[in-house]
Amino acid sequence: MRAAALAAAIGCAFLVSGCEQSSESAPPDAPATSSTEVPVGKGFDFYVLALSWSPSYCEAEGEDANQQQCRAQRPYAFVVHGLWPQFERGYPEDCVTSDPKVANETIRGLYDVMPSSGLIRHEWKRHGACAGLSQDDYFRVLRAAREKVQIPELFRRLDDYLTVAPREAEAAFLNANGGLPAEGIAVTCDKRYLREVRICMTKDLQFRPCPEIDRRECRLDKAVMPPVRGS
Fold first, then answer.
1. Which residue among 59, 81, 147, 170 is the active-site one?
2. 81 is catalytic
3. Tens digit of pLDDT per residue, the chain (231 long)?
4. What is the C-alpha separation between 40 and 51, in angstroms, rounded?
C-alpha cells in the first residue's frame, strides 16, 4: 500500500494539474509567519534549510544518537537540522557572538521543529551566529523557513519501512512546493538511509537555485526511510 501511495504522490509531480496540495505545511502548533515579517540577515548570500528524516538519524547513529531526540515520545518525522547561512561557494561558521548561550525558554519553544536542546545550541553557535541577526531573530527566521516548506503528505509519517528513489522524493517536494527550482533542492543519504532534504532560500525566504548544494545530492538508486517512532 505504501508503494502505491508513493507512486500516486510521485505521479503528481509530473502533472500540470489534477493533484491537490495539502494545506498542512508546518507543525500544527507553529504560528503562521509572513515572509514580509522576516528579519533579513547580512554577511552571507543565501540560506540552506536542512530537514532531517529523524528516524534515519536515530537508526543510523544507534547508541551514538541523541537520546532526547531518539527516545522522545513525540513522533518526529522531518525535523529541522539547521538553517545555514551560505556563500555562493562555501559557508561561514563558528562566528563570534555576544550571545553564545540559548535560554531554556527559547529551547522549549523550538521543540516542535527541532528535537533536542543540544542540537539547538549547536546550530546557533555553529551557524546561526553567522546570520548577522540577534538570536531571537535568527530563530524567528528558522521557524518561518520551516513554515515555508510543504512536506509531501506521504512523508509526514511512515508506519513501516519505505524504500524510495531519492529522485522520487525530490520530485515529491518539488510538486508540493510551487516555485522551488530543481537546482534549489538536494536529497542526501548515507550508504543506506535517506538522511536529509536541503532547500535553498534567499535571505527573505524565497526559493532559489544553488548549484553547489544541488551537486551534493544522493547518488543511490534507492534509499531506506525507517518508520516514525513514538505516539
1. 81
2. yes
3. 444 444 444 444 333 333 333 333 334 334 444 445 789 999 999 999 999 999 999 999 999 999 999 987 789 999 999 999 999 999 999 999 989 999 999 999 999 999 999 999 999 999 999 999 999 999 999 999 999 999 999 999 899 999 999 999 999 999 999 999 999 999 999 999 999 999 999 999 999 999 999 999 999 999 999 999 875
4. 21
Q: Is residue 85 part of a domain?
A: yes
Name the residue type at position 185: I
> Is position 165 within any domain?
yes
CATH of the domain at 111: 3.90.730.10
Q: In the annotation, is 123 catalytic? A: yes
Element (H, E) at 174: helix 166-176
Q: Which candidate in 61, 88, 105, 127 is catalytic? A: 127
Query: Residue 201 is placed in which grid cell?
Result: 532560500
All 3 cell numbers of residue 179?
Answer: 516555485
First to last CA, the chain: 22
Q: Write the single-letter amino acid at 123.
A: E
Active site residue 122: no
Angle subtended by helix axes 117-126 and 135-148, to nearest 10: 110
